[in-house]
Amino acid sequence: MATKLKKIVLDPLSENNPVTIQILGVCSALAVTVKLQTALVMAISLTTVTAFSNLAISLLRNTIPSKIRMIVEMVVVSVLVILADQLLRAFLYDVSRQLSVFVGLIITNCIVMGRLEAFALSNPPWPSFLDGLGNGLGYSSVLIVVAAVRELLGTGALLGFRVLPESYPTNGLLLLAPGAFMVLGLLIWTQRTLAGIRKDD
Amino acid sequence: MHNDRYVIGYAATLCVVASLLLAVASAALRGRQERMVELDRQFNVLKAFGAPVADAAGRRSVPNDEVARLYRERVREMFLDGATGEPRTNAAPSAAELERKTVLPLYLWLEDGAPAKYAFPTSGKGLWSTIYGYLALDRTLSEVVGITFYRHGETPGLGGEVERSWFQQQFAGQRIHGPNGLLRLEVAKGRVADRYPNGNPQAVDGISGATMTGNGLNGFLNEDLERYERYFSRIRKG
């Protein structure tokens, strides 16, 4: 049982990564990765929402009428996302302004809904919570890598602290949307190759 | 299979529980959220005045308490009537009046009890969004001391550069008033050095790829300067 639970958490980090393997949640992965700080806050928000919505739906799974299954899921996710957004506004005002609509848009993130449908509806609470956590962390790891590359090469700093010498010619392209596409594309390629996944699998 | 009554009851219960949760959270956090918004406003006014609250990149470098203390000690607020430029004495204006600019807020930076700098909020359309900022002027109301844009929805990396310090710092020292009256501030298309080989003390370098955002600034910065001029001209005369 322990190994199975471990697999639930670790699988989405690499072999079944929601972003690089399933290509879900790409929109926000491109939008909030200009700086590491916003990416970290987004990562924490999404991981929390995914884990707790999985937990909530799993607890309710035997009572939810199948006719309004998805509406119930949306309500649970929305409540959690609004709570996360309100907390950010109260405690991390600057970051919440930079993330602008993207915290709110976690509601429509395919990863959240996907895990509820694929896992939480048919599994007990504890594994569901871990599944949400694992998928959240899988998304987070991609976000953090992309954001670190973009901030480091785009501005020469990490988390706002200068890392590369002043003489480093910053690469503005990486801060723009095409830079995000390139970094994410390269990451997907690298990660799939390392995980041994081919197109015809 | 659940019957219809169960489904409706379930949906209703869920809605009530969800609303209750959100209402409680909203009520519990509102005070703190409003304080953060207010602190952010104070920080941006202080930043426009050039007070030591931000680092070279324009980010807040001092704790919240320091921002609140500086603002309390050095900044005074007053309101002008938008039509006449007369100072208003009655109660605080409504959000709608501020939005329509029928009431104009003015901030004074005090040195030894006398106003040494003046700042006012400025806002208007860029390319995609309304840009909000503060413009601060010196004691004689003829030079810009500082400018800050703190909220906008322009394209990051293009029009969004208005929030960067390299762009904002160019405004310091720009002339807005000369012997013949008000001068027009200008965000040039391209570099000032290319466009005005002999120099131009009212123009700043534009942002490449963001001409429309620059045009927006040219419009609303000068419109707002004209709005306040009715009051400023009186101060200049003494």
Task: Characterise the protein shown here.
The complex is a heterodimer of chains A (201) and B (238). Chain A is an all-alpha fold and 201 residues long. Chain A has one domain. Chain A is 66% helix and 2% strand. Chain A has nine helices and two strands. In chain A, strands 1-2 form a two-stranded antiparallel sheet. Chain B is an alpha+beta fold and 238 residues long. Chain B has one domain. Chain B contains six helices and ten strands. Chain B has a six-stranded antiparallel sheet with strand order 2-1-3-4-5-6, sandwiched between helices. In chain B, a hairpin with a 2-residue loop joins strand 7 and strand 8 (181-182). In chain B, helix 1 (4-49) packs across helix 2 (64-74). The longest helix of chain B is centred in the first third of the chain and has 46 residues, at 4-49. Chain B is globular and about 80 Å long. The chains are: A mainly alpha (201), B alpha+beta (238). The interface between A and B is medium-sized, with 28 and 27 residues.
Features of this protein?
heterodimer; A: 201 residues; mainly alpha; B: 238 residues; alpha+beta; two-stranded antiparallel sheet; 42% helix; 23% strand
Write a brief caption for the model.
The complex is a heterodimer of chains A (201) and B (238). Chain A is an all-alpha fold and 201 residues long.
Largest interface: A-B, 28 and 27 residues
Largest β sheet strand count, sense and barrel closure of chain B: 6 strands, antiparallel
Shape of chain A from CA axes?
globular
Widest β-sheet, arrangement of strands of chain A: 1-2
Question: What is Rg of chain A?
Answer: 18 Å
**Total beta strands of chain B:** 10
Q: Whole-number average pLDDT of chain B?
A: 88
**How would the global form of chain B be characterised?**
globular
How many separate domains make up the residues of chain A?
1
Question: H/E element string of chain B?
Answer: HHEEHEEEEHEEEHEH
Counted up, domains of chain B total 1
Looking at how many chains there are and whether they match, the oligomeric state comes to: heterodimer
Structural class of chain B: alpha+beta
Number of helices of chain B: 6
Kindly, what is the distance between the CA atoms of the first and last residues of chain B, rounded to a whole number of angstroms?
83 Å
Structural class from helices and strands of chain A? mainly alpha
What order do the helices and strands of chain A follow? HHHHHHHHEEH
Rounded mean pLDDT of chain A is 87
Strand content of chain B is 15-25%
Unreliable stretches of chain B (pLDDT < 50, length at least 5) are: none
Instruction: Tell me the Rg of chain B in angstroms.
Output: 22 Å
